[in-house]
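We include this case.
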Amino acid sequence: MVDSHDAVQEGVVANPDLAAQRPAIPELPNAELGPALVASPQAWLTAANSLSHRQAMQVAPAVLAYIGDAVYELHVRLQYLHPPRRIQAYHQQVVAQVRAEAQAEHLLALVEAELLTEVEQDVVRRGRNAATGKPKRLTVDVYRHATGFEALLGYLYLTQGDRLSDLLAKIDFSID
């Protein structure tokens, strides 16, 4: 037996009266972005700069941090490609940079150098506040700063790729 909620989700309305009573599922900003990313693995490249500031501010900070985490790890991996080395050494360098402690230090360095705009500081604040729960091996402050850093990178990836590149170029990878 098909549940009427499942039928509505699939576009088949078993009971139109019941379907009319259900609240509409809100669309995410740029709703075509999600299916496009699933349909084509290369589509993530076109997601950069795809949202306006207003649309990006409607994205949950945890989602921005999730995207920012992936963007940052890719950036770090690309930083360590040269000179060629063994995979284990390469992996250790990357892991040292993508750890929450290093991310928190990078964020604090950007803040201390006064490199962030007010909007970017707001995104960081939203990301920090979204970091709930009790981390196992970190202090709460480090975890929150790392999440704020990731949220910033996710926001910039979706809205301002050039600004993202500028800030990533200012990161000192000797911190570990």
Notes: The chain has two domains: 1-31, 32-169. The two ends are 56 Å apart (CA to CA).
